[in-house]
Amino acid sequence: MKEIKGFSKLAKREKIDFLVRELLDNSCDAKDILDSFGHRDQKTQKLIDDFSENTISNFHIPFGVVPNLKVNGNVFCAPMAIEESSVVAAASKAAKYWFSRGGFHADVVGVLKVGQIHFKWLGRDISKLQRFVKEREPYLLDAVKPLIQRMEQRGGGIHSLELVDKSDDIENYYQLVLKFDTRDAMGANFINSVLEGVASELQRDAKVCDYFTKSEQELMVVMSILSNYTPECLVKVHVECPVEDLYEHSLGMCAEIFANKFVMACDIARVDPGRATTHNKGIFNGIDAVVVATGNDFRAIEACGHTYACRDGQYRSLSNAKVTRDGRFHFELEVPLALGSIGGLTALHPMAKIALELLGQPSAEQLMKIVAAVGLAQNFGAIRSLVTSGIQKGHMKMHLMNIMNQLEAQPIEQDMVQQHFDDRIVSFGAVRDYLGTLRTV
Amino acid sequence: MKEIKGFSKLAKREKIDFLVRELLDNSCDAKDILDSFGHRDQKTQKLIDDFSENTISNFHIPFGVVPNLKVNGNVFCAPMAIEESSVVAAASKAAKYWFSRGGFHADVVGVLKVGQIHFKWLGRDISKLQRFVKEREPYLLDAVKPLIQRMEQRGGGIHSLELVDKSDDIENYYQLVLKFDTRDAMGANFINSVLEGVASELQRDAKVCDYFTKSEQELMVVMSILSNYTPECLVKVHVECPVEDLYEHSLGMCAEIFANKFVMACDIARVDPGRATTHNKGIFNGIDAVVVATGNDFRAIEACGHTYACRDGQYRSLSNAKVTRDGRFHFELEVPLALGSIGGLTALHPMAKIALELLGQPSAEQLMKIVAAVGLAQNFGAIRSLVTSGIQKGHMKMHLMNIMNQLEAQPIEQDMVQQHFDDRIVSFGAVRDYLGTLRTV
Known about the structure:
The structure is a homodimer.
Chain A: H1 12-22, H2 28-36, H3 42-49, E1 55-71, E2 74-81, H4 87-99, E3 105-111, E4 113-120, H5 126-143, H6 145-153, E5 157-165, E6 173-181, H7 188-207, H8 214-217, E7 220-227, E8 233-242, H9 255-271, H10 273-293, H11 298-309, E9 319-323, E10 328-336, H12 350-358, H13 364-387, H14 392-406, H15 411-420, H16 428-440
Antiparallel strand pairs in A: 1-2, 3-8, 4-6, 4-7, 5-6, 8-10, 9-10
Helix pairs in contact in A: 4-13, 5-7, 9-10, 10-11, 10-13
């Protein structure tokens, strides 16, 4: 393939025609698929197209709900957008299980978000820089006042501004760290605009600071941007019940053994990074599904959560389980979640709006609690399966069903396929081949 | 809201009706939205519904392409499914920029995937356990032979089996770690089925091991599951050119200063976890968009990448930049990517199939290279913006456009809104209010 010129300037129809001609073998099928995955209403499609660039269609993620999620006594029907089998099923099962055992208990520990102005300053006496930042702080904040007004009216704004000496790590490198309360907004645009405003003012002020030498006056901002690492925007959630109440026939073991295996599975995820990665991946299966459904940014949530998981120098599980001395099973999750329930895509994507309506238009803090509860529910469901029947049984059943749907297997074929694959690895090719042999008999 | 009973048993139509009645204020609008985001072809919608559970509609992620992505001399049009503004635009700009500077150079370092059988063994003399595993290894592998046949025919299979002593971390805790080559499949189902098979055999064999004591024979498998941490399924990608070739008028500075600021921005992300989180988040903006578009699992990719980012005990950037002694700018990314280009959703989701067709049906290794290149392109675009004009300028322009679309602003209103918000924070409320004042004048 050669260089394509002016692709972004083409109309959407022309983009599709070009790609179908050059890369998709001129296939009518491909063209039909691209078209059929477009939204039937042109105005809505235009809206979705404008979220991104060079769009030619939409990727559909199944949008489902988890009923009976009880958080702090309130019952929610949590929206989840996820393409992975069994995730919604496992969360639903766990939500129902804990519904009758007191539900999920969630607390927001803090809501602070973080912005960093990274700069170079060529002085040797840091006390001069400290004096400068201290003196100029009111003026720096004053410079961005117009940007902050609306946020302050909503009860948010800048929480603190602090100089951080990073010159031990990199010569002449310092940070201004600002913390923000952005209320119900995720606040990325707000934070970045404020940071860029403060940063320009900082450079300007340094240039005319009369106790700086010439080279000290040339303070150079490298970059100004929010940090997705927000350990102070944190939520805790737990479930708890007497060990004996854990019993269900389907566990296939007594409550004590189940509790012990469950606790050991969590302990393993605390000490072994290889297991912790997958353990936390399961938590994010639940978290991300609600994050996506509500129009939040899952990359930000993932990056922050995993960094938090290694804050003590080793990558560990975000959740923990124990059996207390008085015989209670306790399972908890602590996770930073910088979410918004207003602004950004939450207000623009029609399905995100529906998702938030399903949750009763929650505040950002309420959303943090709900999302964390789904994360813990997901984690509970996964570990429960792992330490009892194993996860493959349910997984493969669903995967097999997907493949049979795709191959349009008839009911009688479905029975035979299910029997055949009872002790075999399910794959698209294997099912197709087996169906082939059935059909040629 | 009270407990909902039997929700999963309802037909899809009934689920929607129930939710609209109970939670969406009986709104016809909400019902129309849920319906309109369904796929117009019922069979296709059924297929998508069966990926997940309790589905009521689809979440549309805009599906766009990045043209002119040159990887190892081949030019690709990379599919990206992402809802965030500017991501596709930035990747496209970076792809084009590097197209004329030699493109991206990518190498797959390894393709091994990992599975863990976590178990408890009550012995004190580990040499007995070592002997047992060594002796039984051929039989353990033999027990899962039927599961592996097809994978071996494709050139993959089990690469190694190793006993790991974890009893220093948790009393009596050991692992069997298996490594796999799953060829072009992501291989999660394959790995999990094999692990569960080996684990049952392990327990059975221990029970009859004649040099084990009674309690040693009671080897207890806690869980068997793949590890999403795959540091040996790794790809490296870099771009490189003489520093002076970096120059473009739009940088607003000379090539040397740009290169130095760029390198410093990367150095900062190496030493500061707060910055590293956001730096890597930007890389995953690109990576995840291709991962989603090709039907791969972004939670797995995220969890693995971030764990890899803290492998030395501090969370750090995954990419690095330097200026070499002979005046060349070098920018590289090293990231584990356990991807599949066959099987799972890649074969089932019609849009994932199109995505892979756009890439010319790549092997898993080719896909790893392409995805890594998009990650590096994304990272380049973000850092370039950050160290030159800042990111807010482009971001806010796009965000403002989205909001004006939503509010159906006319061209003459658009001009006035753009002017007004030149030095103000853009939010949906603020734009709506300002448009309101314009419209009432």
